[in-house]
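Lab notebook, bench 4. Still working through the backlog of constructs that have no structural model yet. Next entry is a single chain of 237 residues. Request: give me the structure tokens for it.
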Amino acid sequence: MADETNQEVETVAAAAPEGGEQREGRRGRGRGGERGGERGERRGRRDDRRGKPEEEQGEELIEKLVHINRVSKTVKGGKRFGFAALVVVGDGKGRVGFGHGKAREVPEAITKATASAKKKMIRVALKEGRTLHHDGKGHFGAGKVNLRSAPAGTGIIAGGPMRAVFESLGVHDVVTKSVGTSNPYNMIRATFAALGEQTSPKSVAQRRGKKVTDLLSRDGHHHSEAELEATAAAITE
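Model written out:
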């Protein structure tokens, strides 16, 4: 009997370390789960950090509703009405975009159009932060527009959709003329075609491998070196 008891004690003692190892293994798995949770939290924090700059950019944008059109679709039970919205978005500092969206309700259509406009924003070079560097022409379909730079105090001489574009862009002095159509979609597309051709003396000088003062000295007027340097510095800023 004593021998059997001693054998049972030895068996229990030998089995104890194995149980301990199993517990440690389980604890290790638990720690691994905790680490996985911590990694997930870190990834979530990184995603939040990545999303913040886009939200901060969207807060300062200028949104202008240009046109709302009610559309209808004839179905078996009658007519289904929807709305199409045209929106212009800009930051007032040289970036502007437009977009359109359709939905069954007006607010949803405006939201879709705004999101589309933010994705298609372009940058336009401005002179002194208030007007265009040079005149331009643009056309889309039957719409044709003429853009002209203007001196300070002129204001925005434009009508309808074109005014919304320049106000969102940050232009304060410009003279425009639209010929051929009054369709707001074609007018805005023609205006963006003209804005896409705008260039600054700085970009032209870089493309041609010259200085801004070299371009300014060929305008047909006699300027001193000090005047040229001051003008070039103002344009560069």
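Notes after review: Helices lie at 2-59, 106-119, 161-169, 184-195, 201-208, 212-216, 225-236. The first strand starts at residue 62 and ends at 75. Flag for follow-up if needed.
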